[in-house]
Amino acid sequence: MKEFELIKYLTNENSQNCDLLRMGIGDDCAVIKNKVDDWLVTTDALFEGVHFDLSYTPFYLLGRKSLSVNLSDIAAMGGEPLFYTIALGIPNGVNPENLKKMYDGMNDVASLYNVAMIGGDTCNSQSGLALSITLIGKVPAKKAILRKGALSGDAIYITGTAGEAALGFNCFQKKRTGSDVERFLKRFNDPEPRIKAGKWLMSQNIVTSMIDISDGLSQDLSHIAEDSKVGFKIYADNLPLSQNFCSVARELDIDPLKLVLTGGEDYELLFTVRKNDADRFEALFKKNKDDIGCLITKIGEITSDKDERLIVDKKGNLITFDKTGFEHNI
Q: Does pTM top 0.85 for this prediction?
């Protein structure tokens, strides 16, 4: 069974009827009502052999990444991170010094975003190292940006550049090194959560839906489309790419566009803005881009047909792939 099918199957009968719950299962974070600031709660797990390989992800960077991917969920709601807990499954024979390096990585990221560790759990693992982090944040009451909310005609935007983490992963797999690929290797091992951009987008009261890119641009945009009951059209030639992205991908015999659309683990923000607000939004971004800290690019539009998932080139020709992104088989 596919990952998202299993989630629906397991949670279909779970009660969401709680007066304190503003948003439960089905978004980047749960949203819990409060008077001034709503609470945000998210959990992400990383398993050795599934999410990371210690042969090319050292313990220090594993610590950084494990917290950063959770921070990205908070960013996707427009929130501010506050506290986290960590549960560890530790296999026999792991050097405590390596675990300390992992915690050093987490601590360094936590200090960047003023996040405090407040507890956790440890136990033995019979099948590799496992980490699960639960992160708690806040957002002004009723201001969390959800996946649902996009309407036909909305403009689709992305922060930063896409596909680089997937290219970095392929560089590790194919032992491609060198100064020209360091950016891609770093994007895979040490992603930057867009906390600053997410908070700014929330504060403008102009974004209609948002998600972070963890499983692939096309697949994560499909989550917005499904929850909002709309379709989308992506203009492939508008996708923001770094300077040598295409040349390195082709050197590795990989389709650059496929990496951008289906690769995953970019942890950029993907969001929508009303068509009538798009010009004003872009003007606001130009005035504040130094504070936001990343590029923002319009890449497509929301359509009315809820079954429509279109990717087109500059001539209007349809582009198709055999998959839309990463999904666990369970």
A: yes
